[in-house]
Amino acid sequence: GQQLNQSPQSMFIQEGEDVSMNCTSSSIFNTWLWYKQDPGEGPVLLIALYKAGELTSNGRLTAQFGITRKDSFLNISASIPSDVGIYFCAGLFQGAQKLVFGQGTRLTINP
Amino acid sequence: DVKVTQSSRYLVKRTGEKVFLECVQDMDHENMFWYRQDPGLGLRLIYFSYDVKMKEKGDIPEGYSVSREKKERFSLILESASTNQTSMYLCASSSWTGVVAGELFFGEGSRLTVL
């Protein structure tokens, strides 16, 4: 089945650093979503993007819907310990309910 | 508070056993999904259902079956568990009329170990 290419697969950073991750696809999506999975929990939606070029923020998180509609980016500024977890990108085709997920980026923060 | 509840957080089964993973949602969602999560492979869709008694294969249906007899409940069945089915299983639900198109609400996961 189709999957998105998400990178990096893992990140080890110091508290306070900024984080960037991205997702690319060979297909065009109508919606991009970013989820976060805390340890021992299911993923939870962080941000949804609906339009090419759209830039959306949620607190210290900023995500962008790529102009080509084949990629998306997530940035976290001034990381804190509770940012630890796995971040997943997901794409949605027009009229569909079935998401296509990336492989995930595991974020570890050294205090 | 909206909720997707998975019946077991941790299970240990033996090769060849039949395994049932249950999922219940209280949001009256039409759509329900079963995913498998493995390190480096992300979330892979096993089966999904758009309505009661309806089911569709996802990307990795082999070795699994599902049942949806009631709108709120979606069960994943491993007819004869094998060691390569050791994994984290995540149930999710969504609505066609949700605020965010495609937003999935996930359960906490069921970690299955097959010995």
How would you summarize what this structure contains?
The complex is a heterodimer of chains A (111) and B (115). Chain A is mainly beta.
Give the beta-strand count of chain A: 11
Mean pLDDT of chain B equals 93
- Cα-atom radius of gyration of chain A: 13 Å
Please report which band the strand proportion of chain B falls in: under 5%, 5-15%, 15-25%, 25-35%, 35-45% or over 45%.
over 45%
Give helix and strand order of chain A, one letter per element, not per position.
Answer: EEEEEEEEEEE
Helix count, DSSP H or I runs of 4 or more residues of chain A? 0
Percent of residues in helices of chain B comes to: under 10%
> How big is the Rg of chain B?
13 Å
Number of helices of chain B: 0
Largest sheet of chain A: 6 strands, mixed
Give the N-terminus to C-terminus distance of chain B in angstroms.
37 Å
Task: Describe this protein's structure.
- The complex is a heterodimer of chains A (111) and B (115).
- Chain A has 111 residues and is an all-beta fold.
- Chain A is 0% helix and 52% strand.
- Chain A is built from no helices and eleven strands.
- Chain A has strands spanning 5-7, 10-14, 19-24, 31-37, 44-49, 55-58, 61-65, 71-76, 85-92, 100-101, 105-110.
- Chain B has strands spanning 4-6, 10-13, 19-25, 31-38, 42-49, 56-57, 65-70, 73-78, 87-94, 105-106, 110-114.
- In chain B, strands 2, 4, 5, 6, 9, 10 and 11 form a seven-stranded mixed β-sheet that branches. Chain B has a four-stranded antiparallel β-sheet with strand order 1-3-8-7, with no helix packed on it.
- Chain B is built from no helices and eleven strands.
- In chain B, 0% of the residues lie in helices and 51% in strands.
- Chain B is mainly beta.
- The model of chain B has no long low-confidence stretch (mean pLDDT 93).
- Classes of the chains: A mainly beta (111), B mainly beta (115).
- The A-B interface holds A 1-3, 6, 9, 31, 33, 35, 40-45, 48, 50, 88, 90, 92, 96-99, 101-104 and B 4, 31, 33, 40-45, 48, 50, 58-60, 90, 92, 94, 96, 100-104, 106-109.
